[in-house]
Design goal:
Strand order of the largest sheet: 2-1-3
Largest sheet: 3 strands, mixed
Helix content: 25-40%
Number of strands: 3
Number of helices: 5
Structural class: alpha+beta
Radius of gyration: 15 Å
Mean pLDDT: 89
Low-confidence stretches: none
Order of helices and strands: EHHHHEHE
Shape: globular
Length: 154
């Protein structure tokens, strides 16, 4: 694991309508977490969208059953070049764009607690890039809805 100047709290979004319907959908936001923090802290909490943390493009699987994830993840375990749904993003593609968010935050901040809210695959893939051992094993960092992973670990 690389040495980081900040502490990151990677949060998988809450249970969504798409989760409830068992569909692969790639769009949600972090405003509800900011609202809760503002109420608890009594101060504004800035929310800055980071396109590098958007959900993985699942290509032809978009809008289909979440049961399709198993085949994608089996392919990921073989190769980080596996393209989700045949036409979507590879694990390497997602890792590169998500890591760029971390690199920018590392340049801009020091000794901060930073909360990053994302989707399941974007969070697990970023975690594998930062913690290892390999991108093919990103599912070891799969989080349940509302799950939190701290990097570096406490």
């Amino acid at each position: 694991m690389r040495t980081l100047r900040n502490r990151y709290h990677l949060v998988r979004h809450g249970h969504s309508l798409a989760n409830e319907q068992g569909l692969i959908i790639s769009r949600l936001t972090a405003e509800c977490i900011a609202s809760e923090l503002e109420a608890a802290l009594g101060t504004a909490v800035p929310v800055q969208p980071a396109s590098g943390l958007r959900e993985r493009d699942f290509g032809e699987l978009e809008g289909r059953s979440h049961e399709e994830y198993a085949a994608v993840w089996a392919g990921d375990a073989v190769s980080a070049a596996n393209r989700a749904g045949g036409t979507g993003e590879s694990v390497t593609n997602v890792a590169d764009r998500a890591e760029a968010v971390i690199l920018q935050l590392e340049r801009d901040h020091e000794d901060r607690d930073i909360i990053l809210v994302g989707h399941g695959d974007s969070i697990s893939i970023l975690s594998a890039r930062l913690l290892g051992p390999s991108l093919e094993q990103h599912r070891r960092y799969g989080l349940a809805n509302c799950g939190v992973l701290r990097i570096p670990p406490a």
